[in-house]
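User: What would this chain look like folded?
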Amino acid sequence: MGIEYFSEELKRSVQGRKVAVFSHPRVDPDGFAAALVSSYMLNYLGALASYAYLDDMNSLAKRMNEKYRPPAPPADFFPDIALIVDACGLNYSHRGKEFHGSEAFVIDHHQCGSISSSKSFVDAHASSSCELILKISSYLGFALTPDMATALLAGLLFDTAIFKYASSESVISAAELINIGGDYQTALTFSKRELTKSLRMAKLKAAKSIELLDSGDLVIAFTTTDIFEGEIAEALLNLGADIAFVAAPRGKGVRVSGRADEKAVSSGINLANFFKESGGGHEGAAGAYIEGSIENVMKEIKTRLVARL
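Assistant: Here's the prediction, encoded as structure tokens.
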């Protein structure tokens, strides 16, 4: 669905109705900022009330939450409409299963195995969901405040690894947000995780259980952890792996983060497609929640990867 049709449909649907904004579990700065700004934009569009469900955050999003303090939905808030940002739909969202309304909209920048709503604005070429929120707010005439621009800039910086994975559109969007009043230095503090003792310990513990697979020119690394699976996957690439999979137990299943370098991507690896319906992401960075034991999930991933290579 194009931005014009999506925006007009969203504007028409939310007027006089209660809206819940969801994002993915352990929401990061991109999902947090997209949800935060969306909740205010929906009120501007005429929603009776709009709240973002942001009670499951990573450490950087928690820092943003302390600054922006978005109002939490009251216990007796029963929304009519859901807006899911930075995730492929209700099935991929935090607390999305609690929604019992009749309509759902999706704004996302990941390659999704399946999208749970036909009312979606998905652009897999965008580097962050915050860029899409900026485009939609501009189309709808919603004027961002400097604080909102700073939050969106933080999300953009986080998802591009401070422009490491940026496109030309990302740079243009960042400049636009700064021109609106976004504070680059403040945004930077929300977009780069500190190398805390717990993160360092998690990386070192995960390094002790690394399994390597040599497949032609590609070196593939597998390991497990309790936390920081995305950061550890990035660290494995820095150590020399071309592809890395890191699994962490989550409830009745496993959260898997995958990373691939440019060589692996150019050889045909697409991690977003690899995870199919269980997850989403980009060619070189994707994640999924898969039910089952950590041993069985990792065994399945290795088998599928070997078959594909």
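The mean pLDDT is 90. If you want, I can go into more detail on any region.
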